[in-house]
């Protein structure tokens, strides 16, 4: 199977007519077709863009973080941003909207699609909710969704609406307001409320249900939500593989079970380790607390192989529309060596190999010649393109097949 057959669903074609401003065709001209962005979302957490864009780094630290984000922007076209309620609004009525907005606007200016994560979750939620009755908790939760989705409309039009609902009503590590109302409303009852609020605030937003639980329990929950008419746009699947790579068998099995819903799938939180693996007996990954968790040369080679295989597998599957690695750099969540960069910003093999996939193997650049009427036929990976002839440029998008478009070259 050649590349075009394997990834045919990721590709498109278009007949384009190139004309000057006066509508004169550019006849028999050599042109360069250059892809600028994928339609497929290759994502990563971009939490550090908030302090970077708000002047929290100085001198060499600022330069260091700018260099990190140069590598970030070279590889990724989608960002997940932290809206954990406890950190975003630690004091009731004082959300950190402005610093978040600065970072989001900077990402958008750099061509990055931004997703907010999450609007409702029992972990990292606002501690002041415990002072309220369950009725009041639900009220302020829905108000929070209306406020944040409205404030960021046009900047963030994709949200993890509610996170990890399978465990939410039985979560017992500590008391929290969201588990309280989930017990009251039930899983589907709460999901219905928060999705309705998000949809009302931004009818065009892409709304995700997100969970780490890939068992039958999550399938039953999704099925119940769809039966109830809840407007889930995308199924979010977390794949934190701290205890070892899923491998092809499990990955294909998960894809088969969740693709039957007929909804797009996003792998929302992906991690693959480049050091020693977490012991298999750990049930909650958060229970694994270590002082250091170093990357190793052997682990980095293993991580690169696994990253390439997993991305190839997911990119090949027609239901998958996004893959998000959780951290670009080592040492973030649980201090795990799960990044594609080491702590000193140097690239690990996984970064180099993934860059080759996304920007070379899955990237379209062509030299073509227009015909006498100024037409060219373009085929390539779906996404945004630039057409250049001499010092003149134009833009177009490859998405649906067999379109015809006229482009004015300026």
UniProtKB/TrEMBL annotation:
<keyword id="KW-0858">Xylan degradation</keyword>
<dbReference type="Pfam" id="PF00331">
    <property type="entry name" value="Glyco_hydro_10"/>
</dbReference>
<keyword id="KW-0378">Hydrolase</keyword>
<dbReference type="InterPro" id="IPR001000">
    <property type="entry name" value="GH10_dom"/>
</dbReference>
<comment type="similarity">
    <text>Belongs to the glycosyl hydrolase 10 (cellulase F) family.</text>
</comment>
<keyword id="KW-0624">Polysaccharide degradation</keyword>
<keyword id="KW-0326">Glycosidase</keyword>
<protein>
    <recommendedName>
        <fullName>Beta-xylanase</fullName>
        <ecNumber>3.2.1.8</ecNumber>
    </recommendedName>
</protein>
<keyword id="KW-0732">Signal</keyword>
<feature type="domain" description="GH10">
    <location>
        <begin position="59"/>
        <end position="357"/>
    </location>
</feature>
<dbReference type="InterPro" id="IPR044846">
    <property type="entry name" value="GH10"/>
</dbReference>
<keyword id="KW-0119">Carbohydrate metabolism</keyword>
<dbReference type="InterPro" id="IPR017853">
    <property type="entry name" value="GH"/>
</dbReference>
<dbReference type="GO" id="GO:0045493">
    <property type="term" value="P:xylan catabolic process"/>
</dbReference>
<dbReference type="GO" id="GO:0031176">
    <property type="term" value="F:endo-1,4-beta-xylanase activity"/>
</dbReference>
